[in-house]
Amino acid sequence: MGITTPNGFNLDNSGKRIVVDPVTRIEGHMRCEVNVDDQGIIRNAVSTGTMWRGLEVILKGRDPRDAWAFTERICGVCTGTHALTSVRAVEDALGITIPDNANSIRNIMQLNLQIHDHVVHFYHLHALDWVNPVNALRADPKATSELQQAVSPNHPLSSPGYFRDVQNRLKAFVESGQLGLFKNGYWDNPAYLLPPEADLMATTHYLEALDLQKEIVKIHTIFGGKNPHPNWLVGGVPCPINVHSTGAVGAINMERLNLVSSIIDKCIEFNRNVYLPDVVAIGGFYKNWLYGGGLSGKSVLAYGDIPENANDFSPAQLHLPRGAIINGNLNEVHDVDQRDPEQIQEFVDHSWYEYAEAGKGLHPWDGETKPKYELGPNAKGSRTNIEQLDEAAKYSWIKAPRWKGNAMEVGPLARYVVGYASGHEDIKNQVDGLLGTMKLPLTAIFSTLGRTAARALESEYCGRLQKHFFDKLVQNIKNGDESTANVTKWDPSTWPKEAKGVGATEAPRGALGHWVRIKDGRIENYQCVVPTTWNGSPRDTAGNIGAFEASLMDTKMERPEEPVEILRTLHSFDPCLACSTHVMSPEGQEMARVKVR
Amino acid sequence: MSEIETFYEVMRRQGITRRSFMKYCSLTASALGLGPAFVPKIAHAMETKPRTPVVWVNGLECTCCSESFIRGAHPLAKDVVLSMISLDYQHTLMAAAGHHAEAALEETLEKYKGNYILAVEGNPPLNEDGMFCIVGGKPFVEQLRHAAAGAKAIISWGACASYGCVQAAAPNPTRATPVHKVITDKPIIKVPGCPPIAEVMTGVITYMLTFDRLPELDRQGRPAMFYGQRIHDKCYRRPHFDAGQFVEAWDDENARKGYCLYKMGCKGPTTYNACSTVRWNEGTSFPIQSGHGCIGCSEDGFWDQGSFYDRLTNIKQFGIEANADTIGMGAAGAVGGAVAVHAAISALKRAQKKNQDKVEG
């Protein structure tokens, strides 16, 4: 039977039901179910978060200065971004400002994460949706070399011998009969369109990117001591600067700065010589595959990030743009206020939670989280062996956040749509340039490939911004300012009795917010609304479908039993499921309605 | 198993020269803290041993262990995956999804029964019938038990699998439970840390492949070679601790001089890990070197030992040049109420001694 959702999608669940569980090459655990009609076209989509850890409950009663470390462990892929959001929320609550150097270092770390995450996402999580490594065995190394030099004349690794070596290695791997990670892939599916040479080139870059990504993150290691999960600090950054005097070996000194600088250059080079050219080259073969737009052309949301100056989060000062677009009206970019109780609300009618007042949306400062795991009457299987979910009832561990009642898409494409619509110069130039090169209209960005391309453009932009903030850091040190932390309010005795704050960032996957309430020096309540909560949200009270679900609609599947197309589109969001799920209760009893007033 | 090629055969077929192969063996030897005399032994093992399938399952976790694993520099992650093991099931990286992924798992469990290594990232939640973590429509704990049944050995990656980590912090709402409390009939190697150091992860795997046995474990089940000493024991800032030179506030003069972070809450004196020796990301740095104290992420229950900025009590009174065992005992006792610390430390001492004897002998 067919219904039309308030956000304009026609759902029909009468066709054959296909279940993908686990969805792999993502962070965390996720399930997806779709109905396809007799043409193999998706007519209904159901996205389910299948894990829940309860970090917000765990945070209650703890020292707010420790919260960054707990929330950082929400996700080890976008490592550090929750920590940054957390220290911002606590600083906002307590009125703590940070020094300029801390702002530059935090920005460099956050930008570094964007680049690392985007590169790893494209090559190691997403590429196999477009690239067929088995087909690469049929490539002519000489022709591959020519292709490489044509798409990226500046990339030094391009000789026929180089590609032959990689091909031989792959060949031996495949012939060993132990396909490892490539086992049971969909390698003979007609959805794969690349010629063998492009497959060999891209597979080679899969390996190059694997080597490179461990270099990229060393910036986190320098400033934060390790990666994954570097260290952060409320009031600034933990690493002191000492470029002139005794003891400099234990601080950020000239050698450390030189290492940071060289890694920044490597990032810029890889983005320009490998990542972007690959996206253009691969995208060129798939440019007629323009499925997956979903909400991107309708409703997108960005909080903005990367403040030029310390402690100034006004939209004009943010390098990554802030704003909301609804109903596809690119002529109007709405400002976003995370404090406004009417703007961001979470609904749980289709999530495995219940509110005191059913059907209501709650702002995160007033959030409740009381788990309620139950399957709907039309689900198939049992409570501990789900064969098919009933999306008319509760069906996910993810809540449904809405902005002024609208389901929103967040992430690189959302940021780029907001940036483009608000006339952000760098973003506009990049988007127009890419569309010009590929001879595509603006509307083409509202697609799976648009999401993938926006991520690549953003990685390139972030590379340049990293350099900008490095230069700024050095200039500031040159001016005599070596300060990295403000400790005037480190001691809890200086804090107000009660305080509340918001921290917002742009995680690689999109808008990320933490809301904290502090009372008597302890966390009274902590709520996170994360990018995949937005993108992976189930239906809401009004019946609006979320971004994942919307993006799968109307996609044609070559072979419905092989979910290549579903993976393609879901991966284009870079889902992060450990991030997306919310609070819960201890052993079913305390059922701690994480109550805030 | 006989049709499986050895590492050496595969590496050779993949165009790796004998010379590079020997270099790889010597790197492995040094990564494991072994002398040059061990290189031929490793080479011999690699030439004769088959590639071992590894099945990697994920429970409640944050994927930092997978991320750390791919940061490996010696050996490189690509060499591990292409040439050393057969990583047959790994959600984060594998091509297949849904029932195709599950079929890949089943095939390995069946074909290599008793011969594969099970690597566990994360842990199973036991509340809500296990449905706080669902894989293929069923509780993760079922998959874990199923995969463990035919495993040769289990590696518990990271603090989650080893101890429970952040989701098991009080009040542990999902009843997240470490692997060894669910699987009790298999050898389990705990490789704690949040995450563990990349080279420690690959070091543990290569040790098992090379020597065809489990690494020597301490009482808690951690490889003694990497977890046998406290970060404090090998910290390059230790002389400042001994000299009573401490950072008193973030970014003060002493911080800029690289003094000891003990007063800022550093947990190095009670944390057993290789951070101050192997360091992170190809030896680039480690938390203390970058100005923040150790938060003790490789210790059981480190989330529930008070603030990360609370000073370890009882350490200072021992003054400089105190016996490391005494400090460790007092501190661990004060911090976590660790059980039988003295015995554990003595056992560790014995383990270290044995290892040293072996290397020297």
Short summary of the structure?
Chain A is α+β, with helices and mostly antiparallel strands. Chain A has helices spanning 55-59, 67-72, 81-94, 100-126, 141-151, 160-175, 196-216, 218-224, 254-285, 412-421, 425-438, 448-478, 531-535, 547-552, 564-571, 577-580; strands spanning 2-4, 10-12, 16-20, 30-36, 42-49, 300-307, 318-325, 344-347, 380-382, 385-388, 400-403, 498-507, 510-519, 522-529.
Textual characterization of the structure:
The complex is a heterodimer of chains A (597) and B (361). Chain A is of the alpha+beta class and 597 residues long. Chain A has one domain (2-128, 286-580): Cytochrome-c3 Hydrogenase, chain B, CATH 1.10.645.10. In chain A, 36% of the residues lie in helices and 14% in strands. Chain A has 16 helices and 14 strands. Chain A has helices at 55-59, 67-72, 81-94, 100-126, 141-151, 160-175, 196-216, 218-224, 254-285, 412-421, 425-438, 448-478, 531-535, 547-552, 564-571, 577-580; strands at residues 2-4, 10-12, 16-20, 30-36, 42-49, 300-307, 318-325, 344-347, 380-382, 385-388, 400-403, 498-507, 510-519, 522-529. In chain A, the strands form six sheets. Chain A has a three-stranded antiparallel sheet. A three-stranded antiparallel sheet of chain A has the order 12-13-14. In chain A, strand 13 (510-519) and strand 14 form a beta hairpin. The model of chain A is unreliable at 583-597 (pLDDT under 50). The radius of gyration of chain B is 21 Å and the shape is globular. In chain B, helix 2 (18-31) packs across helix 3 and helix 4 crosses helix 9. Chain B has a five-stranded parallel sheet with strand order 2-1-3-6-7, with helices on both faces. In chain B, strands 4-5 form a two-stranded antiparallel sheet. In chain B, strand 4 and strand 5 form a beta hairpin. Chain B is α/β, with parallel strands linked by helices and 361 residues long. Chain B has helices at residues 7-13, 18-31, 39-48, 64-70, 77-84, 98-111, 140-149, 158-163, 198-211, 224-227, 238-242, 253-256, 324-336, 341-360; strands spanning 52-58, 85-90, 116-121, 134-135, 138-139, 151-157, 188-191. Chains A and B meet through helix 1, helix 4, helix 6, helix 7 and helix 8 of A and helix 4, helix 5, strand 2, helix 6 and strand 4 of B.
